[in-house]
Amino acid sequence: MTALSVNLNKLALLRNSRGRNYPDLLDFARRFIALGIQGITIHPRPDERHITRRDAYELAELLQDYPDVEFNIEGYPSADFLKLIGETRPDQCTLVPDSDDQLTSDHGWDCVAQGDLLKGIISQVKKHDVRCAIFLDPDVRQADAVCCLGAERIELYTEMYAATFDTEQQDPVFELYRQTAALVQEAGIGVNAGHDLDLLNLPQFLTIPDILEVSIGHALTVECVEQGMEKVIATYLAICKQN
Fold this sequence. Notes:
Blueprint: E1 3-7, H1 9-16, H2 25-34, E2 39-42, H3 53-62, E3 70-75, H4 79-88, E4 92-95, H5 115-126, E5 131-136, H6 140-146, E6 153-157, H7 159-164, H8 170-186, E7 190-194, H9 202-205, E8 211-216, H10 218-227, H11 229-241
Parallel strand pairs: 1-2, 1-8, 2-3, 3-4, 4-5, 5-6, 6-7, 7-8
Helix pairs in contact: 6-8, 10-11
């Protein structure tokens, strides 16, 4: 079964647009957990345009009451970010190569060129007893390189899959993801996935064997508005259970 981790960034963005604590992130985290999800994901950015540092600390405290729900913090490994990881001790830290002013994540790490840098960062994260994942493009060259860095998992950046879903490019692009996943799995590294996955394209993606976790926020938030939380989460969980 693939674990479903709900990314709360878009709810935080909605809250911040009004200047008061509505919607309440902790309340929504509890509601998602009550519906059966297995994880909570956040991606704080330096400008705190959605998730804030305070959110990270409050969610870390909340999730102590839910030991079966994993806490995943994503982000660029700046000194401030790594300090946050050390102080909150999430179950998983996903390293993402974002710039400070980036609108959203749009590429994976170059593990060939940045291998030495990543080795040191991964080692630092693991000293806090936190599982470390690397955001990765579907690229067999990068898959070979990531296997030497010490990360326990990768997160496949799935925007290209989503963009080509149900088009003529779907099959060759999907094959890149399948090959990349297989290579890192052969090296004993687990595979997560995320970015632009939704109710329509997730079933096909999860035909790739042994995807451990999907992190979904933007589409899931929109789908909850359109269809209701209960229906949307139940459908995602049913899809993930089939893998």
